[in-house]
Design a protein that fits this description.
Two copies of one chain form a homodimer. Chain A is mostly helical. The first copy, chain A, is 71% helix and 4% strand. The first copy, chain A, folds into two domains: 63 residues, Arc Repressor Mutant, subunit A, CATH 1.10.10.10; 140 residues, Four Helix Bundle (Hemerythrin (Met), subunit A). The longest helix of chain A is centred in the middle third of the chain and has 25 residues. The structure holds a DNA duplex.
Chain lengths: 229, 229
DNA sequence: CATCTGCAGATTGTCAACAATCCTGCAAGG
DNA sequence: CCTTGCAGGATTGTTGACAATCTGCAGATG
């Protein structure tokens, strides 16, 4: 009957899904402080729903690792200590390097094109001095990287990691590196993929993460150096 | 006061947690067939709890990816098609190779010892011809591999993947390879880590997964060959 | 005879109330 | 002065019932 799908499929997202998204975003951008307690009753009232769906939403966040649940105590926004940040970036290396390898194996020209477009956007933001936009473009690059691999599982893993990364950046904002370097690091990743050089790719991803890590945990660099000796 | 923690911390698992574990195990070992519908009411009655906690448990499984939820329709045990199996093993390569690299970087002798013990157990089972035990030891080796990396995030990702792997093996049991080869592949992974050879490690993990993949999707090898031409 | 409409059945989604558990502060006893 | 016991308040954990939604079939209609 219908010519060519003039209507998009009605896809009402579940209440729990909506709440999950809103809560996740609030946590990601630091609107809810790390360590803060989440009261079920209060949140349910704010969202205008019962505790049932809200509970479902918070449980999802618990499993994503953004929220910690203490039995009979309450829910608390997870705080990232140095070890947590290190682990986060180690996991990102695992997922993003694997995604890059998959793209190389797939030899997809459009994936390469999308990656180049992503760092072009970064370059653009950098040249205009828009640091917030640059940060968004940065994260977007990594999303494109993993999405282009076409692996549902890697994608799902990465979503959680990106939420935590954003959380991390929000908490410790103010530690910027030279925008040009930032763009160059991403270009190196994209071009390694374009060239099909897996070893160079892994190297590029690892050094990129190390760079970010150095900025994020620099506060306690002294303490860590003491601990490692 | 206490000398050296003579008592382990009392940790009563939540009802939802218990149900989640039981359901996950039932799915993993095929006691609930892939594609089967999970009725909330029926399950709640079986477990002797209300629908609340049960719902919480199923939601966790949905997010782990073992169960698919169709809005207002019901819950269904996820079926793994060839693409899904391929993706599963690609994700395992990502996680396990990364875990191996982390162990190499950490230079932990006890990790190497545990890995050797794990494949010794496989060898033992293989020599006695205990195929079921060998299969368990196989999965155990991979758990040890990821656990030894000491990364909470990799560990969590891997748990889901292992559940799906078990599901996969249960569904397609009967496709065994030569036990000696099976042990040798794991030995190769462990020894690559012991030798600190990251490239050899990645190579070993990839070929191991490819081996498993070839057995699991061999049924439709013809169809796939036709599709790829 | 093919097609559409309306109803029954079953299932999930949501809610408000109840029960159990846990932390806090204070007072009594050694 | 320190430990122990106890109520108060608040929070989560759980329950059973109600409302909304979807599927499949019978019956009506051209």
């Amino acid at each position: 009957m219908a010519a060519a799908e003039p209507f998009q499929r009605v896809n009402r997202e579940s209440t729990a899904g909506l709440i999950t998204r809103q809560l996740r975003e609030a946590i990601m951008y630091g609107r809810i402080a790390p360590g803060a307690q989440l009261s079920e009753a209060a949140l349910a009232a704010q969202f205008g729903v019962s505790r049932g769906p809200l509970r479902e939403a918070t449980q999802r966040l618990v499993q994503e690792g953004l929220v910690r649940a203490e039995p009979n105590r309450g829910l608390f926004v997870k705080e990232l200590d140095d070890a947590g940040i290190r682990d986060l970036y180690a996991a990102r290396i695992a997922v993003e390097a694997a995604a890059g390898r998959m793209i190389i194996r797939g030899r997809s020209p459009e994936a390469v094109a999308k990656l180049r477009a992503a760092y072009d956007a970064m370059q653009d933001a950098a040249e205009r001095g828009e640091l917030a936009e640059l940060s968004d473009a940065d994260l977007h690059f990594h999303e494109v990287l993993v999405d282009s691999a076409g692996s549902p599982r890697l994608h799902r893993m990465h979503q959680t990691l990106m939420a935590e990364t954003r959380m991390c950046l929000t908490a410790l904002q103010g530690t910027y590196q030279d925008p040009e370097d930032q763009v160059a690091e991403h270009r190196r990743i994209a071009e390694a993929i374009a060239a099909g050089d897996a070893d160079e790719l892994v190297e590029a991803v690892e050094s990129h993460m190390q760079e970010a890590l150095d900025r994020l945990v620099s506060d306690s660099a002294a303490a860590e150096a003491a601990a490692s000796t």
